[in-house]
Structures are given as structure tokens and as C-alpha cells.
Design brief:
There is one protein chain. The chain is of the alpha+beta class and about 140 residues long. The protein has one domain (about 5-140): HIT family, subunit A (2-Layer Sandwich). The chain is about 30% helix and about 20% strand. The protein has 3 helices and 5 strands.
């Protein structure tokens, strides 16, 4: 990806952020439009639009950082849990074309909902599930 995103500008120090972590390949900072106190984004420093565009080792780096930061966020804001989410592509709601993992603290106040509540869902028969599973296996 050759286009500079707001996230590459943040990594470069051109746009200020509330940085919480940085290493050679990843960067984590507070979301400026938080869904909860402590809402943090973890990104690869290199701009990849979608998770499936990233090299496997970099995916590992991003998720290793995500695990470390999720625990730190929970401890910092006294949250018993976090929701970890990626919108992988514009059709999925991705607003910045640079992979970013949301770490959203969840509290025992009744506001957290399972991810299945975000979607209407579909009713698929077992044979349809089997066909889809086969199609996924054959496309790897």
C-alpha cells in the first residue's frame, strides 16, 4: 500500500497520539473516539489495508502486542474483560485503510453485548454449512 494513512502519520509523529506501546513492528495508542475508557488501537507500523495482506510473522507480532496491551488496558481501567475486534475491509466497516485491532474494555455494568448481537445472522442448514466449510478449505 503506497497511500499514507492517518495511522502512518501517527507512527511518524506527524499527528500526536496518546501512545501506550511501541516496538519495531507495532504501535498502540488510545482511540480518539473511544467506545469506552481505555479503548486502544494496535496497528502494524507498515500500512497494510487488510489482515489478509499482511505477512504471517507480522500478524503474529500484532496479535502478540494485542494480548499484552489488552491485559494492560484491563488493569489500567479496572475492566474485567475486553472485546477485541478488526473490521477487515471497507465493506466490514473499516474506516481507515490500515489494519487496526480495537481493544475495547468491557465492564460489569450491563452495556457489553456478545458479538452476535451486532448482526442479524442467518439460518443455515447443516448441508449448507458443510458446503461452505468445503469451499473455505479448498480456497486456502
Amino acid at each position: 500500500m503506497s497511500e499514507e494513512t492517518i495511522f502512518t502519520q501517527i507512527v511518524a509523529g506527524e499527528i500526536p497520539s496518546h501512545t501506550v506501546y511501541e516496538d519495531e513492528t507495532t504501535y498502540a495508542f488510545l482511540d480518539v473516539n473511544p467506545l469506552a475508557p481505555g479503548h486502544t488501537l494496535v496497528i502494524p507500523k507498515e500500512p497494510y489495508e487488510r489482515l489478509n495482506d499482511m505477512p504471517t510473522d507480522l500478524i503474529g507480532d500484532v496479535f502478540e502486542t494485542t494480548g499484552q496491551i489488552a491485559e494492560a488496558v484491563e488493569n489500567a481501567v479496572d475492566a474485567p474483560a475486553t472485546t477485541i475486534a478488526i473490521n477487515n475491509g471497507e465493506a466490514a466497516g473499516q474506516e481507515v485503510p490500515h489494519v487496526h485491532v480495537h481493544i475495547v474494555p468491557q465492564f460489569e455494568d450491563g452495556t457489553a453485548k456478545p458479538i452476535h448481537t451486532l448482526f442479524d445472522g442467518v439460518d443455515l442448514a447443516d448441508d449448507e454449512l458443510a458446503q461452505i466449510a468445503e469451499a473455505i478449505r479448498s480456497n486456502q
